[in-house]
Design brief:
The longest helix is centred in the last third of the chain and has 39 residues. This protein is an alpha/beta fold and 380 residues long. A seven-stranded mixed sheet has the order 2-8-7-6-5-3-4, with helices on both faces. It has a three-stranded antiparallel sheet with strand order 9-10-12. Strands 1-11 form a two-stranded parallel ribbon. The protein has two domains: 127 residues, Aspartate Aminotransferase, domain 1; 242 residues, Aspartate Aminotransferase, domain 2 (3-Layer(aba) Sandwich). It is globular and about 65 Å long. It is built from 13 helices and twelve strands.
Length: 380
């Protein structure tokens, strides 16, 4: 049987064999609860501390700034709800193209959506106007999970710092924090939080060839945040519960591998993405590539095929052994039109003619050639 062509790496990545090997002992001989006090358990606790320290090093943080979670959804909820619960009379701002795990908790509090351009880039002038003396939190993702648009995080950091200076002069003691969901950035971008200047960052192990249901929230030392899960006081009292040691060891290994190779993988995927885009435009002139030509992650392509039905086209591709998506896996499972495509001005009918192709470590030239042949057969 011919091997399927997998072009949905934005939804899930396969577990790297080296990651699995790193995890394996913690399912069996090193199964102990790291909170226990006998020697074997203390060794497991030390191993977990080392994993946390490796993650902290890549993020330019200290180990006590790293909180393990069950994925980016929990990390995002902890960032949004954890901050806003501590400042109940405050407001927050999130971009209009955030993942649902940002938008849903944000809807629990007073705030607004930051508009984006037709290319899916946050409008900085609008952001400046929207910040009020009550704004306590801004959340803008590093890389959009449908368009691949890379957000101007450093420019947003400069705006936030300016607001802090103004508040200090006005004796307004309300903090203003910047959070970024970096779930789609870990394989291809530098995640050093000090260089970026962010206060909080969420990561997802299932997007970096690590285990699903593992994630991390980085929170700076000056960030005031309240727990969502209380109990035994693990994770610095911010996320109670016996640690998923095997999962977090795997996350650490996956992040280590991803960050060591991110520059090289960025170049490789850029060549593949450029080839795919150029051939699409040449062979299917009606096809429209959404998102920015620049400031875009090479692993994500949103393509509209006018007049087509994206779900039918996706299923026809699937029958030919090509796996792609109609948008975010979360939205697709609910049969909803993409809020991301709506935010950049696409009508619902156009959004429903759009597919998402996401590339990864296993993607080859031949995969893309076969996909192009199939798309020509099905759309021309």
């Amino acid at each position: 049987m011919k091997k399927p062509v997998y072009l949905d790496y934005a939804a899930a990545t396969p577990l790297d064999p080296e990651v699995l090997e790193a995890m394996r002992p913690y399912f069996s001989e090193k199964f102990h609860n790291p909170s226990a006090v006998y020697l074997a358990a203390r060794q497991v606790s030390q191993d977990l501390d080392k994993a946390r320290a490796r993650i902290a090093a890549w993020l330019g943080a200290r180990p006590f700034n790293i909180y393990f979670t069950a994925g980016a959804t929990e990390a995002n909820n902890l960032a949004i709800q954890g901050v806003m619960r501590g400042f109940p009379d405050s407001e927050l701002l999130v971009s209009a193209i955030e993942h649902e795990s940002i938008l849903a908790p944000a809807n629990l509090f007073k705030g607004n959506l930051i508009p984006v351009s037709r290319q899916g880039i946050v409008e900085l002038d609008a952001l400046k106007r929207m910040i009020t003396p009550q704004t306590a939190l801004i959340s803008v993702m590093m890389v959009n999970n449908e368009l691949g648009s890379v957000q101007p995080i450093k420019e947003i950091v400069a705006i936030v710092r300016g607001v802090r200076d103004e508040r200090k002069a006005a004796k307004n003691n309300r903090p203003i924090y910047l959070h970024t969901d970096a779930a789609q950035a870990g394989n291809l971008f530098d995640l050093h939080t000090h260089r970026l200047g962010v206060d909080l960052m969420s990561l997802n192990g299932g997007k970096i060839y690590g285990p699903k249901q593992t994630g991390v929230l980085f929170a700076g030392s000056d960030v005031e945040i309240k727990p969502l899960i209380v109990g035994g006081g693990q994770e610095g009292n911010l996320r109670s519960g016996t640690e998923n040691v095997a999962g977090f060891i795997g996350f650490s290994k996956a992040l280590d591998m991803a960050q060591k190779s991110h520059a090289q993988e960025f170049k490789r995927l850029t060549k593949l993405s450029d080839y795919f885009t150029e051939e699409l435009r040449a062979k299917i002139p009606a096809a429209i590539v959404n998102g920015p030509a620049k400031h875009c992650s090479p692993h994500l392509l949103s393509v509209t095929f006018p007049g087509s039905d994206n779900e039918r086209l996706m299923m026809e591709l699937d029958e030919r052994g090509i796996q792609c998506a109609v948008g975010s896996a979360c939205s697709a499972s609910r049969d909803e039109a993409s809020h991301v495509l709506s935010a950049i001005g696409l009508e619902a009918a156009v959004a429903r003619a759009t597919l998402r192709f996401s590339l990864g470590r296993g993607t080859t030239d031949e995969d893309l050639r076969g996909t192009l042949r199939a798309l020509c057969d099905l759309t021309l």
